[in-house]
Automatic annotation (TrEMBL):
Keyword entries, A-Z: Hydrolase
UniProt name for this protein: Nudix hydrolase domain-containing protein
Species this protein is from: Lactobacillus xylocopicola
Occurrences of domain Nudix hydrolase (ranges): 4-115
Presence of the UniProt keyword Hydrolase in the record: yes
Length: 115
């Protein structure tokens, strides 16, 4: 039996102030050249909070010191990748309230201005 939807699950950090939102540009994999919140999949046996701290550090160079879970969502969309034509993405979102460090230039990160 084949499934219609590929399923992706990840934890994502929202790092923002009143004027800017930190996003990253994906440089590989099925989401290449798309902008996204820093985050991603869990490693084997990893807790949700461990995953968001690790992913934020890997993708931005920042260490998340204070954060809280602010929501969970799931959305489906057309997606041509390998044998799949649809994806269902399940996201756990965290408000990153305090960080240590500086955004590293080695990562393709952008501060996007909001209105």
């Amino acid at each position: 039996m084949s499934s219609k939807y590929h399923r992706a699950f990840g934890c994502y950090g929202i790092i923002a102030d009143q004027q800017k939102l930190l996003v990253i540009k994906k440089t590989g994999g099925p989401y290449i050249n798309r902008y996204d919140l820093p985050g991603g999949s869990l490693e084997d046996g990893e807790a949700l909070t461990e995953a968001v701290v690790r992913e934020v550090r890997e993708e931005t160079g920042l260490t998340a010191l204070a954060f809280k879970q602010v929501g969970v969502t799931s959305f489906k969309y057309p997606w041509d990748y390998e044998s799949w034509h649809y994806n269902q993405h399940i996201c756990v979102l965290y408000d990153i309230e305090q960080t240590k460090g500086n955004v590293q230039a080695a990562w393709t990160s952008f501060l996007v201005r909001t209105r």
